[in-house]
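Box 3.1 A note on notation
Throughout this textbook, protein chains are presented in two layers. The first layer is the amino acid sequence; the second is a token string describing backbone geometry. Keep the layers aligned when reading.
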Amino acid sequence: MGLLDPDSLTQKFSDVSNKIKDGQVLFSHFPWVDNVYNTPERTAEGKGFALVPFADEKITSYGQSPYGGNRVWAIGAKAIEPERIMEFLSWLYSPEGVMESNYGPKGLAWDIDESGKPFVTEFGWKALPANAEPVPAEYGGGTFKDGTNQINNTTLKLTNINPDTRETYDYNLWPSTLNHDPDPVTKSWREATGVMTAKDYFVKNNMIEVSKPFFTTETPVTVPAQLQQKIEGIGKIIKEYSWKMIFAKNDDEYNKLREQMITKSKGLGYDEAVAYEVGNAEKMVFPYR
């Protein structure tokens, strides 16, 4: 039907971002990709990406893992001043650090009112979340987009409560934001859904679930280096062929590509790893089929 991007097998993140920025994409799974389209100019015209819930949708929280996740902060063993690095990391996790690393310095895109509550400034309405709005010289010049945090890692979830303001860190959930004069896109979405926020919609319609973490009393097994190398090699083959399978014109072509994927993967050895990865690939392919 022409709904899938034929460049999806080879394009990079920047290619996708530019397509969304130019309005060439109909649908996006990820809010951290499509936010480049929702500029103040476009939303003022009633154009923008917005949440489209579907009937069987469930928003899942995975709970807290006793062993943490695969996104970590670490200090190198040969760091010259580990104390300074630790000081910076501690700041990133502080209320001030969370706010400034996400939204810039206080007084620019956001500020605190006389009652101690956060609000988006007039500049912030033009600049957030990552627009190329010129920054005043007193804050360093350039554009707001170029000055945003480029560290590809996170600290506290923005839905946590800031102890200094008793509001969430997420500016989208501040009462001052929710009560602000909405742009036509937001206004239209609220009228269509009958709620103020996406969270309100999912709670109202019982579409939230929590997956409790499991605890085995044992630390996770570390995959041997040789096996990990094989898995990575198999992964590359499966990524390539599973994407080709999505674009297969008929069942014969689909099955042929599937056999090629399995054969090439088994050529690297470790049948159990191949079976596991192929199973994951088919779970991804079938919804598109």
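The chain has a mean pLDDT of 87. The longest strand covers residues 59-61.
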